[in-house]
Amino acid sequence: MSAPPSGLPPYDDTNIFARILRGEIPSKRVHEDEYAVAFHDINPQAPVHVLVIPRGRYVSLADFSATASDPEIAGFWRMVGRVARELGLEERGYRALTNMGPEGGQEVPHFHVHLFGGRRLGRMVPGAERQVGPGAERQMGAGAER
Description:
By secondary structure, this protein is of the alpha+beta class.
C-alpha cells in the first residue's frame, strides 16, 4: 500500500480525479464548467455526498490557494456554493470538507471539497469534547502543545 499523499506538489497525473477529468473513468456529474467539476462520490458517507474538484493540477488546498489564479479560485468556490444550492442543501445545512496531507486524512492527491448533506451530521472530529466558557483551555488538556 502506498503512503498517503503529502498534500504538497508534485502533482500525480495518474490519480483517480485526474483520470475522471480526462474521461478515462466515468462519474455521475452534477455540474461542470471551465473551472471545476462536481460529481457524486462512489462511496457516499451521507445521503448527499458530492465531490467538487478544480480542473487544474492542484494537489491540495495549500497548493491551490498558493498557485491557482484568482479566476480559478473564485470559479471553484462559486461552484461549491452553486452545487449546494442546486442540491437543496442550504435550507437545512450541509458540511463542506477538504483534507490536506497525511494527518488531515487526504487520500487522493488532487484538491477536492466534499459536500455532505441530507441528514444531521455528527461531530466534525470524532471524540472531540465541546469546549465552551471559562476553563475551556484547561479542559483541552494540560500540557497540550499549541
